[in-house]
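Milestone M4 deliverable, item 7.
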Amino acid sequence: MSNYLIRRLVLFGAISILGILSIQSYWLYRAFSLKDAEFNQTVTMALYDVAQKISEWNNAELPKHNLVQRKSSNYYAVNINDFIDSNILEDFLIREFEEKAVGADFEYAVFDCHSEELVYGSFCKLNHLDHTKEGSKDMSKFDNLTYYFVVKFPHRTAFLISNMWQNIIFSLITLFALGFFSYSMWVILQQKKLSELQKDFINNMTHEFKTPISSIKIASDYLKKDPHLQSNSRLKKYTEIISDQNERLNNQVEKVLSLARLESDNFKLSKESFDVISVLQEIISAENIKIDPGQVKLDSDLESIMITADKLHFSNVVCNILDNAIKYCKNAPQIVVSSYSKGENIVLEFIDNGIGIKKEEIEKLFKKFYRVSTGNVHDVKGFGLGLFYVYNICKAHGWDITVESEYEKGSKFSIQIPLNHG
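Output delivered:
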């Protein structure tokens, strides 16, 4: 994943998180406001009915205006304008609040005209699940009222919140999901950072290997030409081992460097027009030198096919597929490379008689560092980078690569190349 894509992902993720948090906060605030308005309306209606019952009990007339007044969020005053019996008041309050399902604990007080003080009634618990402490008994007087009583809901906020448990649960789930997403983003960034450090280390290490490899090659080539060494068969054999192993090490280093260039953000293909058949013939001739002649064959009805692609990477793709076909073979390898036209495409097929690939392993075949199980074949060396490189080169060119295989019988790799572009 490129740094540009990760930066965009982080930016969009941050915007999404802020947006969701803003919407969630507004939703909770809105839900609380609705609950508060509903609570106020219900309490006002209940207090109005209580005032009506007291007036009927006293056979008195209620004021026509401002009968129930909300002095604060949890504090109400009811202007009766007549004598109030606190015992009857408490009974009326409990009955009306229970009937209208108010459910919140409350405390009340009655104004005493003789002492001109609010006489505290009692703290009434309607919510049996509420384990909060009683109210503060701190009631404010009102100079503009004569005969009145006040009702206070000391735990109104806690009561409203307790009735919003569904909203709160959904909010907590959302916050948990956002927290998990944020943590995942942090892990991705950390993994990306570690991956880049690892990639830089491997690139620097492989570059450092190039110098001693070149020095060993120069030395081994000089030793091969020395006449005294040529006459000594044992030293000649050791020199050939040094040269062969140095060449093998150089090939592995080149493969790692090629993958590093391939995975870099500034990777570009150097496309040119060339004849596929001619390149295939050269590669097959070179492969037949390594093994018995004729074990790799070209089967094509076409004498010449011109495509536009990166010639070096195309050659590496073919070599990687052929090298795998040779390595993963129990007996003498028999490999057929065929080419034919299919509509506006050219199809290259590589058919071998190797150990084959199990069905469940085919989908993992092009993954980095993945190596197919070799069964009883234990001498196959490599890092699992060849087919990863093949797949990414085909992807960079816009080619389709597919695999068909039957375990213990062989495999067929097919590459479909459009003729109208590279």
